[in-house]
Amino acid sequence: MTSSSPYDPPAEPRPPRLDFDRPPAHPGTAPVRPGLRRMRRRRRRTVLLAVALLVAGAAAAGVTRLAGPDPSGRHPLAAADPSLANGAGAGSGTEPGGYPTAGPGSFAAADGRSPVRGDNGPLRRYRVEVEQDAGQDVDEFAATVDAVLGDPRSWIASGELRVQRVPEADAADFTIYLATPATSERMCAEGGLSTERYTSCRLPGRVVINLARWMEAVPDYGAPLEVYRTYVVNHEVGHEFGELHQACPGPGEPAPVMQQQTYGLDGCVANAWPYVDGVRYSGEPTDGV
């Protein structure tokens, strides 16, 4: 593992095209993210419990005024949930799955380099980094990424590109980050994307994998966690290789890897690979994002 360093946003403006798992538009209705309601309900219950505890404590002490900031300027709920101070959102706690919701924003990069995978085409070099204190081993994450991108069912099956992981930032064409929900949201927001700590995203030269999705996948995915992990790597790296979103071809068919499977399968079944039985598998283009 190389020495850790804080994440540095690019100094120069990036090209305008950005890619992330955006919910498809439905006229007249608000998009609903699977699992998001559950997250909001959990946060709401936490806040209501904190309020109840404060009210009970205030009643016991004979205090009647709870609304508004105290003389120090802190929100009255900050004592129960410090993340609510200064208007902050959800805090840097731990999800039921045991992973942190926020981290320091500094990353450690995997050492060494992988073999060159693929037979023909330009060589695309990538670097792998994991946020510190995320509870994930950077070398294990890098090994998973290497296995996905080097698989003959992945993008190298086109015969038009090769891939290799490198440890040097200057040598990498793009970097794949594994980041806590809060950090991934901040990184994606630098490109104008609002992920609500739920989705992963891709900006030019940066693939940001949300730790929550890496650890939990999505509700009703219908396949093991390893399948979702393979999908999210291939999907976001696919954007880096110029691929756009695609639609489900039909009920019961495999979902194209560029379908937004994080937001549901639309009748398709989970599929993590761009090539199926040696043939490029795809659906109709959707929103072009």
From TrEMBL:
The chain crosses the membrane at residues 47-67. Residues 97-266 form the DUF3152 domain. Keywords: Membrane, Transmembrane, Transmembrane helix. It comes from the Bacteria. Pfam families: DUF3152. Residues 14-24 have a biased composition (Basic and acidic residues). Residues 1-39, 66-121 are annotated as: Disordered. This is DUF3152 domain-containing protein. It comes from Micromonospora chaiyaphumensis.
